[in-house]
Amino acid sequence: MNNTFIKLALFGLVFVFFACDKAQVFDEYREFDGTWKKNQKASFTFEQKDTISKYNMFLNVRNNNDYPYNNLFVIVSLNEPGGRVLVDTLEYQMTNPDGTLLGKGFSDVKESKLWYKENFSFSKVGKYTVNVEHALRQTGRVTGVQDLEGVTEVGFRIEKTK
């Protein structure tokens, strides 16, 4: 065997080893064209079969330097099988005091992994839907922000607790 093949095979094994995420149960994103419109819900549907184990759930927000606020308000609806809906209004800090974006990333796009629910047990087996919508308002204004600039993607992630 030649040296190139061995190097390529080792690289592949290292990639597979580090790419595995054993805690991940569900992880999807919805993409926006740099603007998250008020009427755009990021919707995620998944099948849940385990009602015994505990799970952590997260919202993942990717935003860039066009994001004009230091926080983010969202309304998250968890629609359970059978019609029950759990609704939460949440606020997250998105910038440092100097205005630089929080989150991870090497470019001007940062990803923030935001807690949604911790040690959560699903009550029923079946199909669940999570809807996420932004609920930002400018200080002193009654109507909400219609076009939230700088948000490129919103994701939803479920991890099994250890």
From TrEMBL:
Keywords annotated in UniProt: Lipoprotein, Signal
Source superkingdom: Bacteria
Keyword Protein biosynthesis applies: no
Region forming the signal peptide: 1-23
InterPro entries for the chain: Motility-assoc_lipoprot_GldH
Species for this entry: Flavobacterium indicum (strain DSM 17447 / CIP 109464 / GPTSA100-9)
Recorded name of the encoding gene: gldH
UniProt entry tagged with the keyword Zinc-finger: no
Name of the molecule in the record: Gliding motility lipoprotein GldH
